[in-house]
Amino acid sequence: MPLVRISLMKGKPDEFVGQKVGEVVYQAMVDTINVPAKDHFQIITDHDSNTLIYDPTYLDIQRTPGIIVIQITLNEGLTVELKKLLYQTIAERLHREIDVRREDDFINLVEVKKENWSFGNGIAQYA
Amino acid sequence: MPLVRISLMKGKPDEFVGQKVGEVVYQAMVDTINVPAKDHFQIITDHDSNTLIYDPTYLDIQRTPGIIVIQITLNEGLTVELKKLLYQTIAERLHREIDVRREDDFINLVEVKKENWSFGNGIAQYA
Amino acid sequence: MPLVRISLMKGKPDEFVGQKVGEVVYQAMVDTINVPAKDHFQIITDHDSNTLIYDPTYLDIQRTPGIIVIQITLNEGLTVELKKLLYQTIAERLHREIDVRREDDFINLVEVKKENWSFGNGIAQYA
């Protein structure tokens, strides 16, 4: 159900960094906000500094070109506490597992109703 | 008013498959949920298997690299029945008209208020 | 807080047109809807006519390949009047500052709750 869009700079040494980020985000959602196993759908785009624009100091957080913008469309209804836990878990694991600076995570949630998804066969599986 | 984002794998034999998908989605919206004629705005992105991530069996639906992810931003207020009709119509027509497997449609709706659009000239035409 | 996605045709004479559009949109948000200074995060994608689809006359507005699709995810709660002022300001400035036709602006807002953002360090800074 979550549809995750991940945007990051290209030119990283490992071409699979986008996928690794995606796996960490997916597992964090399973472990914190009850996303079902296998509910893993993501769109990753690579950018250069002309097309991924960020402020390097907004809110006194020091960002680098290692910034990763994660926009997650998911069902509405999470508590504020669960959202906070999700952000914290993503940031901790991206840092621990693939060495992403904690300052370089940008996360945004877009909430929709449960009938706003079809996972195939033209059926609204969650409605 | 709907803004449609379509993501699919590149390397298909026909380079216009994205456009054809878009035309089917557009016409399905006109015919089922009362989208006005000519209200046709879409952004299509091609991906490889490293950047379009999907689970091949979630909800026991067998997906292939032919997966098409369709995210539609549109005005709020559709009934659940109309949303279901839209999904069904898109899946049936993509299958019949351009041979997309029904299992390979992934559709998500993001709803917004009617004043959240400007179609040009800096005016909120629907407000 | 606003996350801005800008989609435009490639092949423009100036490769930085996307960034210039982004700067105008950012400044318009600061000046009209109270977006904080430095809150500047944008994702820009270039397209060709096969992947950026628009109707050239919908609502009797004459659009050209110079079309710019701007989708802004931001906090909910703006009045209709402020949204109108934002659209008008973006269109006027894009025209005046970088010669974008007013008819070629397509703007869409997606609204989210204030706790739906993390700007780094895994913290929900606005919650």
Tell me what the structure shows.
- Chain A is an alpha/beta fold and 127 residues long.
- Chain A has helices at residues 17-33, 80-98, and strands at 3-9, 41-47, 52-53, 68-75, 105-112, 117-118.
- In chain A, helix 1 (17-33) links the parallel strand 1 (3-9) and strand 2 (41-47).
- The first copy, chain A, is globular.
- Chain A binds chain B through residues 3, 15-16, 18-19, 22, 36, 38-46, 73, 110, 112-113, 115-125, 127, and chain B through 7, 45, 47, 50-55, 57-59, 61, 63, 69, 71, 80, 83-84, 87-92, 102-111.
- Strand 2 of chain B pairs antiparallel with strand 3 of chain C.
Question: How would you sum up this structure in a few lines?
Answer:
The structure is a homotrimer of 127-residue chains. With 127 residues, chain A is α/β, with parallel strands linked by helices. In chain A, 28% of the residues lie in helices and 27% in strands.
List keywords for this structure.
homotrimer; 127 residues; alpha/beta; 4-stranded mixed β-sheet
Instruction: Let me know the average pLDDT of chain A.
Output: 95
The overall strand count of chain A is 6
Q: Supply the number of helical segments of chain A.
A: 2
Oligomer: homotrimer
Q: Poorly predicted ranges of chain A (pLDDT <50, ≥5 residues)?
A: none
Strand line-up in the sheet with most strands of chain A: 2-1-4-5
Q: Biggest sheet of chain A, in brief?
A: 4 strands, mixed
What is the strand content of chain A?
Answer: 25-35%
Helix and strand run of chain A: EHEEEHEE
Spatial shape of chain A: globular
Return Rg of chain A in Å: 15 Å
Q: Which class do the helix and strand fractions of chain A yield?
A: alpha/beta
Biggest chain pair interface: A-B, 32 and 35 residues
Helix % of chain A is 25-40%
**Head-to-tail CA distance between termini of chain A:** 12 Å
